[in-house]
Write a structure and sequence with these properties.
GTP Cyclohydrolase I, domain 2, alpha+beta, Alpha-Beta Plaits, 8 helices
Length: 270
């Protein structure tokens, strides 16, 4: 949609295109059981309210615009327990080669001043590093994950030194996996992972290049995704031994959420 957000005067004068992604959590089973739009949240109504709020005034920051949309969705639609709003800015005035700049916000409905409690679900993350001390970098990422409300790191794997994949002319990687319990949606968890990467100084100069830290969501209990930003389960993880070996360490008798990690390693001859 077209709007007038940005810190530069020309952005507020000329405007530009924005792309919004909105994911609503509707946990009330009765709202979905009737297979009737009147018993759940209308996509059309959410879209209409989003356009109204997003284009209602000019803002310096897309963070503020995303927050305004999230707060209004929570406030307007009683069946929405939580919402993730991502605002993409394809034509951001940045001197770099990129697809778009984006920010994501996560908001939850509150009861008696506290966020409404959501069930904890299992998710599995793969971590890697080949700039600096890989073990220390991955340990820092674990600490950062544990510091986020709604995330508990439950199991961590051993560290594995592996050859680079996809681009050979770089240092070997230190790889690991962890099992977490989280009340965050997959989109919100992705935002946390990207935030940890950025906070630790990751710079994406080219695909499969060196990195100080990489935090990928491999699997999330009961959730699948196939969007530009997030694919669950992670594509091709079952063909990558540098993911499967540490994933086996945190598995339950060789399986993770019904996936046979041990058998996948055997197919690869590892």
């Amino acid at each position: 949609m077209y709007a007038y957000h940005g810190v530069h005067p020309e952005e507020k004068e000329q405007g530009q295109e924005f792309v919004l992604d909105i994911s609503c959590l509707v946990s009330d089973e009765s709202a979905c059981a009737g297979d009737c739009v009147g018993q759940t949240v209308s996509y059309s109504s959410v879209a209409k309210k989003t356009i109204e709020i997003f284009t209602s005034r000019k803002r310096d920051l897309i963070e503020a615009a995303a927050n305004d949309v999230a707060e209004v969705v929570i406030g307007t639609f009683p069946l929405v327990d939580a919402v993730d709003v991502t605002v993409k800015k394809p034509n951001a005035p940045v001197k770099a080669d990129f697809g778009y700049m984006a920010v994501s916000v996560h908001r939850e409905r509150k009861e008696n001043g506290e966020p409404k409690k959501r069930p904890m679900k299992k998710a599995y993350l793969a971590l890697g590093s080949n700039i600096g001390d890989g073990k220390k970098n991955i340990t820092r990422a674990y600490d950062a994950l544990n510091a986020v409300p709604g995330i508990n790191v439950v199991k961590i794997s051993e560290f594995y030194i592996t050859a680079p994949w996809g681009y050979a002319d770089q240092e070997d990687f230190t790889n690991a996996c962890c099992e977490i319990e989280t009340s965050l949606s997959p989109e919100a968890l992705l935002g946390v992972c990207l935030g940890i990467e950025a906070g630790m100084g990751r710079v994406r100069e080219f695909k499969n290049g060196p990195r100080v830290i990489d935090v990928d969501i491999i699997m999330y209990d009961g959730e699948t995704r196939n969007t530009e930003e997030l694919r669950l389960p992670h594509p091709a993880f079952s063909e990558r031994s540098f993911v499967l070996r540490p994933l086996l360490d945190v598995s339950d008798n060789g399986t993770v959420l019904g996936f046979d990690v041990r058998a996948a390693l055997e197919r690869l001859g590892k």
